[in-house]
Write a structure and sequence with these properties.
This protein is mainly alpha-helical. Helix 2 runs antiparallel to helix 7 and helix 12 crosses helix 13. It has a single domain, classed as MFS general substrate transporter like domains (Growth Hormone, Chain: A), CATH 1.20.1250. It is built from 17 helices and no strands. The termini are far apart.
């Protein structure tokens, strides 16, 4: 039995270093998303409990991505020029943990506002830098990204259950827990193989070096339109479920856990699906499923049934980003890949968070949170029309599968 397992590992991994590196990235991704349910769910609930209005919360969650517009290019630039990219990730993780802890010491809006900005400066580039490190290592050793990213989702599912129990005891426990999670991430990153920055000191990011650059921009715009409704969701849905629909914190925890379940299944076979069906086919599928999701989110008024509706997240929204992250890694020259990933993150987690948070805060105050999901339906229809044009453009350019850029 042991010999058979060793033989299978030898077939997958070229060297002992590649095997150790692969498992170190599995460990890194397992803890990488532990802070997500705190930032996107329980921090919202906390803000509402201490008396912040939906407009104030929307404004806070729009300022964070606004800072990301400046922070993400900076962190990408710094990573590509650093001697070891991993060291930049240490700084980012330390900054996120410390600022989140400080946020729990005050309820003063001006102070919270200042700390929130500082937290966003660090947090905005954590996952793009992690993805850049992992994709660099995995591509060099001809290993798949999907299973590694799936472990990240499994880690998220684990911590959702943990937090669901913890916040029943005291909601403010999220602040020290976030710091603990950041420390654990730093320890995990320390085990990963060092990745050197490849950009020379005076070298610039040049768009013309990207093959099929116009097509890539089109796909990024499509991703923005798909991500825009998720900006409504991440900022306002926890409030909608618990306040408007009468759902409990336990239902919210089960919903977050269930959302991630289907995501794991897709991630495990993501590369195989892309190779078999092509990027365009998967994006069409993801767009249609996303449209169905928002239609049902608008129509369903039972909090328990919303659990099943939001499970579509893992096989719609995440499909788009899995495809785009891999596509960018192939299209962008190696020396600026981290910059490429952070610029993409600037769109889907920057602009696509600022505008929904700002617009959603005012629209929800006027018409209620449910109205936002009607807007989401319109956004998805527009995105599918754009995708139809992109598919025709890719066919004219002879890149129908849009897989191989270099």
């Amino acid at each position: 039995m042991v010999n058979q397992l060793k033989h299978r590992l030898d077939l997958v991994f070229e060297t002992d270093d590649s095997r150790r590196g692969y498992f170190s990235y599995l460990a890194m991704y397992f803890v990488a998303f532990w802070g997500e349910p705190i930032y996107f769910t329980y921090l919202l609930v906390y803000f509402r409990q201490i008396g912040y209005s939906t407009v104030t919360i929307g404004y806070l969650y729009s300022i964070g991505p606004g800072i990301a517009l400046l922070a993400q290019p900076f962190w990408g630039w710094l990573s590509d020029r650093s001697r070891v990219k991993n060291h930049v990730l240490y700084i980012i993780l330390a900054g996120t943990g410390i600022t989140m802890l400080l946020m729990g010491f005050t309820q003063s809006l001006p102070i919270v506002f200042t700390i929130f900005i500082s937290h966003a400066f660090f947090r905005s580039s954590q996952h793009p830098v992690e993805d850049s490190l992992a994709l660099d290592f995995l591509s060099r050793h001809r290993l798949r990204y999907g299973p590694v990213r799936a472990v990240g989702t499994l880690g998220y599912m684990f911590v959702v259950l943990l937090l669901g129990w913890a916040v029943k005891w005291e909601i403010r426990i999220i602040f020290p827990l976030y710091l603990v999670f950041s420390i654990m991430s730093i320890l995990a990153v320390r085990r990963t193989p060092p990745v050197q920055g490849a950009m020379k000191a005076r070298q610039k990011f040049e768009f013309k070096k990207i093959k099929n650059g116009k097509l890539l921009l089109g796909y990024v715009l499509f991703s923005f339109l798909v991500s825009f409704p998720y900006g409504f969701y991440s900022t306002f849905f926890p409030l909608y479920l618990t306040s408007d629909l009468g759902g409990s914190a336990s239902v919210l925890g089960v919903l977050m856990f269930s959302m991630a379940a289907l995501e794991v299944i897709f991630m495990l076979g993501g590369e195989k699906l892309v190779n078999r069906f092509g990027l365009n086919s998967l994006l069409v599928y993801a767009g249609i499923v996303s449209l169905v999701r928002w239609v049902l989110t608008y129509l369903v008024m039972d909090p328990t049934t919303q659990i099943f509706v939001q499970m579509l997240h893992g096989i719609s929204y995440m499909v788009v980003h899995f495809c785009l992250i891999n596509y960018i890694h192939q299209c962008v020259p190696p020396e600026v890949r981290t910059t490429g990933q952070t610029l993409y993150a600037l769109v889907y987690s920057g602009l696509a968070r600022i505008l929904p948070s700002l617009i959603g805060g005012y629209l929800s105050a006027l018409y209620g949170i449910r109205f936002l999901f009607l807007v989401a339906i319109i956004m998805l229809v527009v995105s599918l029309v754009l995708l139809a044009f992109l598919i025709q453009y890719s066919k004219r350019k002879g890149t129908e599968d849009a897989l191989h850029c270099i």
